[in-house]
Amino acid sequence: MKIFGLIFIILFLNCSHAVLNQEMSYFEFEMNGENYQILSVNSPDKGEAFNQLIGRDFIAVDYKQDQNIDKVMVGDPEKINEYLKIYKYGIQKAIEKGKLKEKENINSYSNSMNMKFYNVVTYIPAVGKPYNEFIYVEAFAVRRVIKALDRNADGELDIVTSGIYELDKLQNEYFNFLKSGIERNQIAQTEGMYLVIPKE
Question: What does the alpha-carbon distance between residue 89 and residue 14 come to, in Å, rounded to a whole number?
Answer without folding.
Answer: 19
